[in-house]
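Notes to self after the Tuesday call (sharing in case useful).
The group wants a holo model before anyone commits to mutagenesis around the pocket. I volunteered. Ligand is adenosine-5'-triphosphate. Logging inputs and output together so the record is complete.
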Amino acid sequence: MEALDPILSGLNPPQLEAVTTTEGPLLVVAGAGSGKTRVLTRRIAYMIRNGVQPWRILAVTFTNKAAREMGERVGQLLERVGVTVPVQSLWISTFHSIASRLLRRYGTEIGVPQNFTIYDADDQKTLVKRIMKDMNLENDALHVRQAIHYIEAYRNGSLKALYPPYDTILEKYKSELSAAQAVDFTGLLEKALELAPHVAHLWDYILIDEFQDTNHLQFEFIHRLARPHGNVCAVGDDDQSIYSWRGATPRFLIEFERQFSGAREVRLEQNYRSTGNIISAAGHLILHNTTRRPKKIWTAAPSGEPIYFNALDDERQEASWIVSRMLEHNARGVSLDEMAVLYRINAQSRPFEDSLRREGIPYTVVGGTKFYERAEIKDLIAYLRLALNARSDIDILRVLNKPKRGLGQAAVRRIRELAGERSLWHGLHRARDERRIGPKITEFVRLVEHAAALAEKRPPEDVLGFILEETDWLGMRASTDIESITRVENMNELLAAVTDYSDEERSNGEEPTLQGFLESIALVSAEDLSEDDEDTEKVWLMTVHAAKGLEFDVVFLPGWEEKLVPMEREDSTEDSLEEERRLAYVAMTRARRVLYITRARERMVYGRTLRTSPSRFLKELPRDRIKILSRRKPVTHDPETLAEVASHAHRHRKKSVKSSSYKGSSSNSPFRPGDVVRHKKFGTGRVVSVDGSGDGARVTVNFRGIGQKVIVASYLMGVDR
DNA sequence: TACTAGGTTGTTTTT
DNA sequence: CAACCTAGTA
Ligand SMILES: Nc1ncnc2c1ncn2[C@@H]1O[C@H](COP(=O)(O)OP(=O)(O)OP(=O)(O)O)[C@@H](O)[C@H]1O
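Result:
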């Protein structure tokens, strides 16, 4: 009897078609849980078994975790058919990792030094802030964030023109980056695009997962890589596009056929993940979006349990109710790691952590404040980065006086003076003869140079060990306060992480390098790395964004309240509401068997208790699939409504601007077409049309340099001409 | 230069 | 409710 082929069995006809159609452009559009990722994995294995050399295939995933899992699965499939493939030979990774890898190897061709440093979002903020300060622009957090917002939108292709002063800021920013031999996240993509013609010959087959969340730069990169052979396979679901705030757009998925001539399209319509009730409810919800391609989805699975909804008094009760349900499911045999709480914002994790800890249930919080974002860890990393690239001014400024060595503001000013137009590192060298600060600077320079020398010939753990030793940070062990103890623990943990990295590399027959370590932590989020005691089952706490592509038996969705789910802020638009709905759709479709949705009647926001109202999405779910567990119950006291304090309205704003209220509002429409209005984020613009009345009216405004947006009236201020 | 108290400010989502 | 920044003092 012949055994089933592990690579081609367990696929329905369209899936099979997608797996075996290896030549030419192919697009797989399909709803959640229809096996898109499975298709990609099988396809890679299929091609390799047919003789394609593994390193001729490039597969792009959305996260590093997804990349690792895909690599593992491909390896397993091939093993079962007797093909052995060295793991490292496969190019399966994120756009950013691919870019970084290419840049390391071929960057010199386009003027990027081999030892470039990767700047993260924080480094970017620091640098932009400094530039804005030098330009005498307002440089408080708000303005800096706004500047970065525009600059990034422009760079990733979602904003067509960049106006003053942002154009100048960007120009200066870019020149500072290149002087510092640094590349930021978007820079990685920009450089990769530049490099594309030089590297396109490396691959014959390109595959992309989660194609609906590709930005312009990424698409262009793929387009250029595919030019020689046209073998591109993209899979995605426009209803799951949830990263538009990062410049991603489903446009490239929609336009695929136009961009790649002769493209075939395969649709997958059967969902294998969830029960009928879940599929039906999620499908019903997403139907409320107007800008989407209609799509069929069905399941052979039974309806299953209804979707449970409950409203609790506040977020702590919400958490403890959910935790009780977890205990029940666990008692009935559902493993803890098959349960997940998926929330809108990281701050929502708090009450769940408290409650789980109280019940003694192990849990993992994915994301949130990451290990590598802690101050003491960033300090150490700054030292490590300097060891490879001393031209990175940001890193010098970060650690020059850490630990305190008497080099404060005045010293920095002097070093800047001496550096002139050149890097601070140059300034430091010249400052070694200064009367007062000279000796301390000499000491610092020596430290960095010694670390640099070590990095050349010793493994990364030795370099870190040297820095810890020299800075005597671990000496703080002596201090007894909790804070310094955890600091020291964190530093030791970093040392352990470096050592793990080196061991891992060695076991793969590679030489561990500091460069490699720094890269792995710059691009790989902490939770990707931490494989901490895998043998303990733990429930998952994470944002919906982080849950993309995952699945769990039992899923809990807390916080379905207006302003939170859907998230609504001053700059919310019709489009952003639709993205919120897609987010809710993604959240619901993570569940295999049981789905709970809850809300809190009151919630603490910024230390005040606010009254909430139920999410509009609840009304968009089909009644017959939902079981409502809550009974009406009035609140005893009288907290402010969310609307009353929206965006600090009553704290900061003039009376002339009222905040929005979902209960409707008394005043008549305050704006007419032609009026000039101001918006906090978009600036001034002219009213095109008004839909509805009162503060809740939707006003279409044409903003200068930005274009048309639909804004809720309450977020606009009239401007007298 | 280092430290502390007090005021203010804010939050999506992440490679 | 934090986390962060600023200004004033040791
Ligand atoms: N033909 C099939 N037979 C049985 N199970 C399948 C089949 N195809 C996919 N599955 C299962 O369905 C589930 C969803 O598959 P997969 O994660 O590949 O879907 P997806 O389309 O990528 O989902 P999403 O877009 O929601 O991330 C997985 O558990 C997978 O093993």
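Two things stood out.
Residues 478 and 485 of chain A are 9 Å apart (CA to CA).
Residues 634-669 of chain A have pLDDT under 50 and may be disordered.
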